Each structure stands twice: as structure tokens, then as C-alpha cells.
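Sanity check. The docking grid for zinc ion depends on where the pocket ends up, so I'm generating a full predicted complex first rather than guessing from homology. Inputs follow.
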Amino acid sequence: MRSSPKLKPGIWDALVALIVLVMAVGCACAVWTGDSDGGGELEAVVRMDADGTDTEIRMRLDGLNRVERTVTSNGYTLQIVLTETEAWVEASDCPTQDCVHTGHISRSGQSIVCLPARVIVQLVGGDGGDPGVDAVVG
Ligand SMILES: [Zn+2]
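Predicted complex below; grid placement will be based on this.
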């Protein structure tokens, strides 16, 4: 004698199902964002002020042969060299030459700044590494 009339799914069942679903999605998102952090390939980001417009050039360094880019920014011309592992300013007609003297950067977080030309060469991605404290700003 077992007659158990099935309960009709009410509002609470729907709510519980919804909460479970939200939690599942929330967990997935947390894992996802945590996982996507770090790693990746080294990328050079060159920011400049070309004709008064902020311009950004991004270039993957991985597998890159030596690439020279001449950028004109804020009235100055910089010759930037990118290789598979490094980036540097080869030559510049800015008055301070700090960007040239900064030398080569090869780690994520390092950057070369040319204030007169308003150019920033930055390395991002890669294995992380501490943000460049040894970069010269000038
Ligand atoms: Zn400079």
C-alpha cells in the first residue's frame, strides 16, 4: 500500500534549481578567470602620439625575426627594434636620448619611455615576472 501522490513542482523547486544553476555557473566563472591569468606569449606594445592621436601597435615577439619600426610621434622619430626576445630603441632624435640609453628590455612588465616623443615601448604577457622596476623613465 504505497501510494505517494507526486507533488507538483512548486515555486520553491524552481528557486532551488535556479540557485544550484547560478552557483554552478559562478564556480565555472571563478575557475575560468583564475585560469586565464598568467602564461601566454611575450608581446611588445608600442604606444605613441601620432599626429595628436593615441596610437598603439601590438606585436607578438614569439617567432619574430628582427623587425625595425620607425615611429614618428610628437615631432620626434624613433627607430624601435624588436626581436624574438628583446625590444629596444636603436636611435632617436629626441633631446634627452633616455629611451636609447635605457637599452634592451626582455621581460614582461619592462618598458622604455621617451617623454619628449611621448612613446612607450612595453613588454606584456609572457611568464609574468615582476613589474619592471629597473626601467628608466626619462
Ligand atoms: Zn627619447
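Relevant for the grid: The chain has a mean pLDDT of 84.
Also worth noting: Strands lie at 43-50, 53-60, 67-73, 76-82, 87-92, 111-114, 119-124.
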